[in-house]
Amino acid sequence: MLEASPSRARALHWFRADLRVLDNPALLAASTAPECLTVFIDETNAGFRPRGGASRWWLHQSLAMLSEAITRLGGTLILLRGDSRSLVPDLARHLGCDLVTWNRRYGLAEREADAAIKADLRAQGIGATSFNGALLYEPMEIKTQAGGPMRVFTPFWKACRALRDPPAPLGAPQRLMTPAGALDGIPGRLTLPALGLLPNKPDWSSGLAATWVPGETGAAERLDTFLEGPLAGYADNRDRPDFRSTSMLSPHLAFGEISPRMIWHQVEHCWAEGGLTASRRDIDKFFAEIGWREFAWHLMFHYPALARENYQPRFDTFPWERNEGALLAWQQGRTGYPIVDAGMRELWRTGFMHNRVRMIVASFLIKHLLIDWREGEAWFWDTLVDADPASNAASWQWVAGSGADAAPYFRIFNPITQGEKFDPEGVYIRTHVPEIAGLPDAFLHKPWEAPGPMLQRAGIRLGETYPEPIVRHEMARERALAAFKGLSN
Questions:
Q1: Band of residue 44 on the pLDDT scale cut at 50, 70, 90
Q2: In terms of domains, do 17 and 157 share one?
């Protein structure tokens, strides 16, 4: 841990995807200076990928919670908008700072910007230090025996686990002293509402607000709830969208409201103290899901175009179809396949989708409709509250078969049998597709096979109150197999 030297009397911590005070190594390092200030910069239109609508809603809430936490510690969160490459050095010089700290980010554009900022600060005689506050293991740490990047998850995760246990989490700063008058006259300083992060005309966020409690406290409560309940049986139940079987921590991780090592060590502590009803198998499976996030960032670090370009170039000639009507039906949850429609409607209402259903809807878009995986990645980026740049891209490419460690092309999820297997009593479908709730379980996943009188009793008119399937599964499967077989090796 960096300690402030006597000559470093004033430090600035720059918040990015680390919106917390606990286990924040860069913030803690800055707080050792006699005077410590903090800033968050909305980098919209600064050359980085713009946040989606759901992420912007979450960011507003998270910044509000962070600002309160900073105030309780005696500090003030400065809010700015613009290009960090000029704003950070200018702000540090304006404030008279001797040191600027931040936690690393791993996208190429972000890394290049951070390197330029660090060089600019040091050229002015201002110290600049960065830390790992986002991952258990940094992407450059894990290598093949030949010294290159890993391409397959299982050996990647084995290599991580053989390296060392994640370091113990750090505490929060004792205080963040903002000297009187230090914040006067900061050019371009904004209030949180002035950032314009919330939706309006219309405000579509009511479902998000009813589902989530963004911020560091919400993250801690979500972890406690998971450890007290769904972690027990996680290995067997995590694929069931009809159960409360997953941690729901992904948006909190995406915004850095909780660190992965905080999660790791709290689970291990509860296990050691005998405070969990979960099995070791449950815990290891949960840790492997955190490992997938690590693997995604490993891929993004070594292949920065992961969200834009096929990881496997042979997919560059794939005959994707342009079908705006089918894409819109998929986005709106009007495909005629209940498990697909349930997932897409859950996403629109809550900003979230169960992971098993994410795979089902992604497979449907890519392989039933032959629509480019990038269309799905972009829709998820805009609508998910946990829209992580690396995990989103890596997961879509995995389903498409174009990524590293990808699913084989012949793995085409059958949306009927997937629904029957993972939502056997129709709880998930009836929650999100209520217009077919009156069907018995035997026909809920394939309403087009229900007898006419049964549909009538359930108040369903196919093609009117609920759509006919926009494509037939067997035909779509054969078409997809033929298209994928045509790829050059």
A1: confident
A2: no
Q: How far apart are CA 326 and CA 215, in angstroms?
A: 37
Domain count, the chain: 3
Q: What pLDDT is recorded for position 4?
A: 38
User: Does 273 share its domain with 355?
Assistant: no
Residue 216 is a catalytic residue? no
Report the chain's mean pLDDT, rounded to a whole number: 95
For the entire predicted model, the pTM comes to 0.95
Inside any domain, residue 177: no
Of 289, 309, 420, 435, the active-site residue reads: 289
**109 and 158 fall within a common domain:** no
Instruction: Give the chain's largest Cα–Cα span.
Output: 83
> Which two three-digit tokens encode residue 356?
């098993």
Name the active-site residue from 320, 323, 420, 448.
320
- Per the residue annotation, which of 14, 157, 373, 379 is the catalytic one? 373
110 lies in the same domain as 140? no
pLDDT digits (tens, 9 = 90+) for 73-89: 999 999 999 999 999 99
